[in-house]
Amino acid sequence: MNLYALVIAVTLIFSYILKLVAEYLNLSALQKTLPKEFEGVYDAESYAKSQEYLRVKTRFSLLTETIDLVILFLFWFLGGFEFLDSFVRSFGYGSIPTGLLFISILMAAQGLLNLPFELYSTFVIEERFGFNKTTLATFFADHFKGLALGALLGAPLLAGILWFFENAGPLAWLWCWLCLTGVTILLQYLAPSVIMPLFNKFTPLEDGDLKRAILNYAESVKFPLTGIYVIDGSKRSTKANAFFTGFGKNKRIALYDTLIENNTVPELVAVLAHEIGHYKKKHILQSLVIGTLHTGLLFYLLSLFLTNQALFDAFFVTNLSVYAGLIFFGLLYSPVELLLSIFMQIFSRKNEFEADRFATETYGDGEAMVGALKKLSVNNLSNLTPHPFYIFLNYSHPPVLERVQAIRKVAGGMCQVQNASVG
């Protein structure tokens, strides 16, 4: 085992152990006593159900992680990469078709291996806890559409990356970066009107109290709304959500029908105010810039290792190739990705607090936001007492109790200011 193999193997095992520790600590942090903040919102039966849901999901996640890791090591050390490379080369295609075939087979194999776990998660676990509304037809239709989009969009992009690294010389990484950035921006623009409607039905919000309240709030914060839509989330799950997507004239705000069903008008406006807060605070732009810089760094480092013989030796592959180098570098890059993901989670949690603050200050009804967060937690059977280490590694949003405290603090400060003004 050479140095590259050792680094990759140790990183994969370390990441796995880190996940085990985090999951164990998270389960140990469960509290039998319902937090006072949720008294009157959660009943004892639902609270116990939320904890059982976490236990079941955790055990299942650890099982899938273990199987994935074992299969990867078996494929690796039994010479699977060399066998597959020899197989795709035997067809005598050019380097780019061969590369597309190599990567497609790996992705197809991974998808087939994951399929039973996805089916079990959806139709056994989510069904057991009352979330699943997906039919088998919808489930497989979603997968088929995903595969079709991957072939239509991903294959040409991957072919372009392979071509650049084979023909564009030392600046190939720069051309790949520019190309991928352009495609990403284009997809961000097209997703709300072209891609997302392939999976869900977007219906314009009907005229009424909710639409008037949303438009009045949007006007008060000078946010031009080009579309408020209801998404048929109940087609797949009882879980609720809302999101903002797109940019420019193509931006949309979407409310799950399950969210509208379970919340009052003030609560729904508060949720939308939070989403608008992300836009106003430039969180979406910041994420796009950070993602673009990360992609540039990734391609530059990739260019340094892409045809490194020692890296190919680590995977027992004889012939150098750009397509196999992409896969091997992805595994080598995993420790950097782990560190970056932790920093991105911290950044995301900060942004969530800022969006909550924006919503509270501009809408002026902190309790509406609190009420919405509580209902979302109950409806989604969220863990109310996650362990700090688990939050550190995995949470893109702060725990609900921390968000409630922060919102109340902002609202309290606003009341003091108003009282001082009146006095």
TrEMBL record:
It holds the Pfam family Peptidase_M48. It comes from Chloroherpeton thalassium (strain ATCC 35110 / GB-78). Residues 204-410 form the Peptidase M48 domain. The lineage of its organism: Bacteria, Pseudomonadati, Chlorobiota, Chlorobiia, Chlorobiales. One of its GO terms (biological process) is CAAX-box protein processing. Zn(2+) binds at residues 274, 278, 352. InterPro entries: CAXX_Prtase_1 (IPR027057), Peptidase_M48 (IPR001915), Peptidase_M48_N (IPR032456). It is found in: Endoplasmic reticulum membrane. This is Ste24 endopeptidase. The keyword Protease applies.
